[in-house]
What does this fold into?
Amino acid sequence: MAEATAQDRDDRYEAYRGDLLAHCYRMLGSLDEAEDLVQETLLRAWRAADRYDPQLSSLRTWLHRIATNACLTALDGRARRPLPSGLNPAGDPSAPLIPRLDVPWLQPFPDARLGDPADTVQQRAGLRLALVAALQLLPARQRAALVLREVLQLSAVEVAQALGSSVASVNSSLQRARATLRAAGPVLDELREPADPDERAVIERYLVAFEAADLAGLTRLLSDDVVLEMPPVALWLVGRTHYHQFLERVFAMRGAGWRLVPVRANGTTALAAYAPDPAEGVRAHSIQLFSVRGGLIRCCVTFVDPATFHLFGLPTTIAGHAPELVPASTPLTSLRRTQTSGRVG
It folds into this structure.
């Protein structure tokens, strides 16, 4: 009987793994670190199981309270995880592409890691990259209060209990946090507004144009004030002209024959980009996340780090010449991860 009870408890805790992973990611900005904190959370929950009272809170709320405090401990003394726009002024598309390896960059989040309990519109909106990047601007306790209240939609009383604070203190923290985020842009609005209905179609057109090295077609998909960021490269660009010039540079350096594979990341459609490689067919280059508004791309954050592919379970190489893999005309909605089947290099 005891073994059955313990197994039942494990199963109930495990059901919230994806939910807790998303929460820890919002707090930390790193999927790798979030995974460690989820393990710590489940271990703490197991040790404190006899102190859980279902009359006082739901299991989900109790687990998030433990996860929040584990994150606050982990964040003590740590540097925030920025995007390039949080470090430097916008640059020139001809500037050297020098990685900053001393910066703990923000990471993307694969939606596949959410799991069923967190598969809600609110949870996915709470993973949007602009919001997670803006959260990094907040002190840890303000960040926790905002995430618990705005994303997880706990009551002020529940947030106060999670933080070991008073409702008045929580409300004060929320007021300061919201003011900071309003100054950073309309990121909180993304929690309440649906994604652009044309987002998927726009990204599909971007995929087709990029694979065809169609600069004119790519440029037509960009807003006038589009932003391009490329961590771990500290350079970032603003404006359609600079974006166009940079793409010219990319195709001149790498050539044509790219292959882009759709994935889901941070609550939106993203693209895993494989660059042509004479010896390998195509090789992992970047994970590209987009913000689409009004049928145009407003921002593209390109994580130029092949190591990021392991977060999505993608191989780093695909054997064979890229144009033979998947016809560029194949609708994005019919593409599957099996497109990337091949050896991992």
The chain is about 40% helix and 15% strand. The longest helix spans residues 167-184. The CA atoms of residues 222 and 297 lie 5 Å apart.
